[in-house]
Each structure stands twice: as structure tokens, then as C-alpha cells.
Amino acid sequence: MTIPTSGHQLQSRVSSAGKLELWIEDVPVAAPGDGEIVVRMEATPINPSDLGLLLGPADPASFRVEGGKTVADIPPARLASMAARMDQALPVGNEGAGTVVAAGAGAEDMVGKTVSLVGGAMYAEYRTVRAKDAVPVPAGATAADGASVFVNPLTALGMTETMKLEGHTALVHTAAASNLGQMLNKICVADGIALVNIVRSDAQAAILRALGATHIVDSSKYDFEATLVDALADTGATLAFDAIGGGDLAGRILVAMEAAANRKADGYSRYGSTTHKQVYIYGRLDMRPTTIGAGVGMAWGVGGWLLTPFLGRIGGEGMMRLRQRVSDELKTTFASHYTATISLADALKPDVIAAYAKRATGEKYLIDPSR
Amino acid sequence: MTIPTSGHQLQSRVSSAGKLELWIEDVPVAAPGDGEIVVRMEATPINPSDLGLLLGPADPASFRVEGGKTVADIPPARLASMAARMDQALPVGNEGAGTVVAAGAGAEDMVGKTVSLVGGAMYAEYRTVRAKDAVPVPAGATAADGASVFVNPLTALGMTETMKLEGHTALVHTAAASNLGQMLNKICVADGIALVNIVRSDAQAAILRALGATHIVDSSKYDFEATLVDALADTGATLAFDAIGGGDLAGRILVAMEAAANRKADGYSRYGSTTHKQVYIYGRLDMRPTTIGAGVGMAWGVGGWLLTPFLGRIGGEGMMRLRQRVSDELKTTFASHYTATISLADALKPDVIAAYAKRATGEKYLIDPSR
């Protein structure tokens, strides 16, 4: 057992000069204390939830290499909101998987195992963590299989769990052909939950149809509103998870839910239906303001939804139950598909950044820091 | 004891021809059954919550008298949303008070008492109700004193109760110099709850200052945002009740709450503060879409708030506790002030409609149907 003493780590900094800087630094690897392990990272995804920290509010078209760093310009109007991270070098990467290469006292049996990790700074050659925070991948699974077992799987399961916790019986999902959306479809098909998928193209609809999705509505079509109301009336969905965030889509979903609820109403109510209609915004593919128009009635809500507070809400036992399901169905329901596997150095190339910064539906990149 | 057989009742109808029609009809008075009473209505307020049913989406500038009715035009674009009430004559008036003039078996002891009622169709000479649904006014109080004991008092108390139920410790209120806002100030002063009042003029600020309000912020001033963040940081308010609804005010409040929360943050969080920030929209003084801009973080919510579901949430005992407080403080905390007392016939005059349809802050009209 050789304990590595230093390794590469990706750094992101917003400078007060208005630049976003990315570079790879050789940082010391913490020696494993009692109950700790050192993991050589071999697979760590670039999730939409990583891009905010990684690229900040930089103009994606402006990335170039300057003085050994990859830099981009930050529009002046967006610099003010970055005060809290200004001029700090920050490590990036929410989750990943790799091989245990060293261990402290009491964790020696972990050496050689492939484990999944969550918690930041995963875009690095090595991570030292507590052994009890590492989740061994199931037999026959690789680091790539175990790279994305937290963020997307737990978010998708968090949607159906939130549905049950808050008394809804069916769901709506936007940007529905994403990796996450595909997982959610598999969960809903398996669990018998009706799901209305909102997509933006025929190609996206085809992806979901192949997974057995029954309700697919295309927001780019002229009859979107009418089709959506039909799907909502058919499924009874009163809860939506929205990855778009900005613009009028969240409001249009609420208006359609209200119209579907009023189809069943027996008489005029000045306040609209008494059915509570909820949209949770969990992503921001569209950075414009969120607009809620007239016609939603009074029994509605829109709000942010994040995985961490949800996990806090269901507690340790709830989390273990969800993790077990992810492990049991790792190669089926929760399998992730990657567009390409790249090295840490690749992740800093302007043309590669341009590709993953697009957040194109269904495209996802995997970094192998050991390359 | 003479039982009236018919009486005047105000009617509102949206016609498929695109007109709103108001008139007074002589309707039969239901004879009181066992446990029922007949109340001669003497004081019934025109609340903002009555105006939606009363005036519908009519253009307030177009009211005129035609063929014995008061009529107004409905903009064609707004007629579609009225399908559920089309061509139906609807009675109006959420609450009121009057004298019991007749009673069925078992309720004879109520005759002669002044009672408060809630439940619709109060813009009428007589209402037949169950005796147990009528709340006798306290000794020394008149029908005018007892006219507004439900909607505004229970809504104002509902705000502080919701604050406690949902784990907040201070409040924000918009259109804060309204009758409701004045009540809320008295409740908060009495109960030691910090309240940030958002007003739109110096005159409104003066009304609240005279009631002991400590935090008053004027949205018409150039330094509104900065003053609001200071007030939010000072009070720790993370829950707002908004009577405006449309436009960007709800979003600006959330952004200011997030800024106040981040003043206390110790380090950068890419998702913003973890403090949940909530705005409940309980009125629609502004009919434009609600716009939530960037800068709210992820821990936020906006939604509709209505009295009836809130009362359902606190249950019968909770409601009795609130009602008792209203009764105990009827002439102080919960005293309403009326701009004028008018007859049913006055309420149909185009110039009077123009006055009450303005929803001017602090102005409120009382109808005495017995005139």
C-alpha cells in the first residue's frame, strides 16, 4: 500500500477583474486517519448541478487559454452576485467513483474496492474520505457504473417521494428526455405512477416512448396547451418538477392544471379550484425571470426544490432505503449514459467546455481523473 | 314575531353577450326550520374579496344604468374565463351582521339579538341560517361593529398563525395601510411580532406609524431595495403576505430576503442561503402576471393563500380560539373603519361603484340592506 502524497485537482476561480479561471493544481493528498480511506477517482460526471460552480456566470463563448489557465469573461452585470466566492480557488465535482488505494486504521479491508462518493472536490486524482461515507459498488459494477449514483438517482426518487409526502398522485416533468428524466420514467413505469413528460422535440419524445412513457407533450407544438390539459385531466397530476425555471412554462403548467381541475368542478368558484397545484423548480436551464400568469386560481405554489433539504426531510432511514434501491437497480433503472469520457485536462479545453456547457438534453460527460 | 316572506337581494350576472349586470331582486325568504333563525341584515361590508364576484372582469369605467339594471362591458378576452358562472344570477356578500327577527323551534331565545354571519348572499334584506352558525356580538356592540368580524380579522390572525405554523418568526405585509394591514399591525404590536410594512406613499406610512409600526418601507422611494434589505435583516422576516399579486413585488421581496440571509452567511453557497423564504399572495390588486426574477436562491416559495383552507388546517378548536379573540378585542384591535354606509340601491349607482371599485388603501364601504 503506497499512500499518494499529492495529486491533480481542478480549480475554479471568479476573479475581481471579471474573469473566470480554470486550471489544474497539484494539491497535497491528506494521509488517511483512523477509519479513513484514499480513493483514486476514476469516474466523475459533469452534472448540470456542477456547472454553476465550475463555470460561474462566464460567457461560454469566451473561453480561451491564457498563461496556462483556461479563462472566460464574466459580464459585468453578473459579477456582483459572485461576491461570496470572489478570488477564491474552489474545487469542483459533486460525486464520483474510484478505487480505494490506501486506508487508515480500521478501514484496511476497503483497499482495492471500487466505491462511490458524494460531497464535492471530486474532479481530482485522489479524495480522502471517511470509509463509512463511501458506498461500495455492487458486484460486477465498474467505477463508471458507480459514478452517478447520488445526484440523479436520488433526485429522481426524490420527485416520486415528494409526490407521496405531499399528497399528490401523479407527476409532470419538464426537459423530460434528460438522463434524469429517463430515470424518472423508468421509476414511474416500475412503480405505476402516471407521469406527464414535457419535451421540446420529436426526437426527445421518441427517446421517452421507447422507455414506455405514455404521456408525452411537446411544448414546441401549436396544440401544447390543449394536449397538456388533456394529459393532466387523464393522469390527475397536480405536481410538476421543472428543470427550466425561467420564462412562462411553470405558469403555463399551473394554468393547465387549473383548467384540468375545473373540468371536474360542479359549479362556479370565484377562487378557482380547491385542488392545490404545485411546481417545484429544481434547475435553471432558462435564466430569465419566472412568470406566473393569470388563471392559476388561488390554490397554487411555485418554489425551489433541492436534493439536500429533501434528504434532510426524509431522514437517515429514508435515505438508506433510497440508496439501497439505487444499488439494486444500478445497471437498469439508474444506468447513466455518457456522451464521452474525458480527462481532467480535456475538461479545460475551450471546445470541450463549449460542448458540455450547452446542457443539451440527454448529453452528459464523464471525467476520468486517473487518465 | 312576524316572519318576512320576501326581501331584496343584490344579484350579479355575467351574460354571454359580454355584459356584467347588477340588480336588486325581491326573493322569497326561507321560513326558519328547527334550529334556524331569520336575520334582518343591517351591516355588510364590501371587502376586496367580494369585488371579484360582484363586478367580475367588467371594465369599471363602463358602468351605466340600462333597462332597470346597472350594466358594464366585459373585455372579450376576459369573458372566456367566466364560463363557470355564465348567465347565472349570483347573490353576493361574504359576511355581515343584523338582528334576529324570527326563529324556528329551539332557537326562539335568539330573537332580538344582534348577530354576525358569514357564508355568502349577505347583500340582502334577510338571511335564514342555522342559529349555531350565528355569532352574537358582544354586549354594547352594534351591527356595524359586528359586520366585519370574519374576513379581515381571521385573515390577519391567519397571517401570524401561519407564521408560527411554518416556523417563521417575523412577517412582511404589502398594501400594509389597508384596514387589514392596520389590524395586522395591532396584532403584531400586541403579540411582540416584528412586522415589515410595505406601503406606497408617505400618507400610508403615517397611518401605520400612528399605530406603533416600527418597520415601514415605501416601495415608491428610490432606496426601496436597500431599506427593505435592512428591515429584513433587522427583523429576520422570511414570510410575506402580499395583497398586490401581479408584477415584480413578490419577487423583489424574495430577492431582498435572500440578500438579508446572505449577510449572515459564512462562506459561498452556490445555491444561495438555506433559509426558506416564502411569499403568500392573498389578493390581486395588480392583475398582471407575477414575476420572480433571479437572485432568490433555491430555498423559496410563492403561492396562493386563502382563508378557508387555512381555517380547515387549524380545525374547529383553532377557529374557536381565533373567534374568541376577535370578540374580546372587537372595538380595539379588530375595529373596522368605513368610508361611508350605503343602501343596497346606492351600491348599484355607477358613481358609487367607481368609488369602491378603486380598492383604495384604507377606504371601505358598508352596506346597510335595511335602509
UniProtKB/TrEMBL annotation, chains A, B:
<keyword id="KW-0521">NADP</keyword>
<dbReference type="Pfam" id="PF08240">
    <property type="entry name" value="ADH_N"/>
</dbReference>
<dbReference type="InterPro" id="IPR036291">
    <property type="entry name" value="NAD(P)-bd_dom_sf"/>
</dbReference>
<dbReference type="InterPro" id="IPR020843">
    <property type="entry name" value="ER"/>
</dbReference>
<dbReference type="GO" id="GO:0070402">
    <property type="term" value="F:NADPH binding"/>
</dbReference>
<feature type="domain" description="Enoyl reductase (ER)">
    <location>
        <begin position="15"/>
        <end position="367"/>
    </location>
</feature>
<protein>
    <submittedName>
        <fullName>NADH oxidase</fullName>
    </submittedName>
</protein>
<dbReference type="InterPro" id="IPR013154">
    <property type="entry name" value="ADH-like_N"/>
</dbReference>
<dbReference type="InterPro" id="IPR011032">
    <property type="entry name" value="GroES-like_sf"/>
</dbReference>
<dbReference type="GO" id="GO:0016651">
    <property type="term" value="F:oxidoreductase activity, acting on NAD(P)H"/>
</dbReference>
<keyword id="KW-0560">Oxidoreductase</keyword>
